[in-house]
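[retry 2/3] AcrR family transcriptional regulator: previous attempt timed out, resubmitting with same input.
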Amino acid sequence: MTAESEKPKRDTYRHGDLRNALIKAGLELAREGGPEAVVLRAVTRQAGVVPNAAYRHFADRAALLHAVSQAAIARVARTIEAEQAALPPAADAAAAARGRFRAVGTGYLRFAQEEPGLFRTAFHVPGDLAHAEDDTAAGGSGLTPYALLGAALDNLVETGVLPEDRRPGAEFLAWSAVHGLAVLLIDGPLRDLHPTQAHDAGRRVIDMVERGL
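[retry 2/3] AcrR family transcriptional regulator: success.
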């Protein structure tokens, strides 16, 4: 046994960092194995602490998985916000609103394809659609993808693109279409599509949603 292996595992973190360390470890495991990989023993091993240390912050696996799910949702949201921030200048307010609305869908689909394990984890546990908690990384507004979609739809109404009487419940229609495609692309019969085909499918679904609204 080496001197390194004889070192005791850390069972305390200063300033409450242990909770965030466990969530971060859960995110790393989820990235590779999805929500099924987020188990207490594996997370504590990943974080380098004794198994019982997790119970200081999480009552059980369900509580841990919920926290990791919330953090993953926040990462989906930050990808959407980055997509919106990268939009080129628009000709007018209406065009800018359309661009921000479409960026919600393109960012959502991009995250699903680039981070399928985290995407599965993000929506594995029912949670608060209005809150995305992630203390493990800086940046982002704290809004969920659902809230960002709602804000984009509100902006369409404000700029005269979307009739006000079509606004109620529009989140559910748009989200259902884009989320359905995301699941088909990562876990369904469309998972073997060439990236160019997948990108085209995403663009056309967003076109369809935009025209339908």
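[retry 2/3] AcrR family transcriptional regulator: Residues 31 and 117 are 4 Å apart (CA to CA).
[retry 2/3] clearing retry counter.
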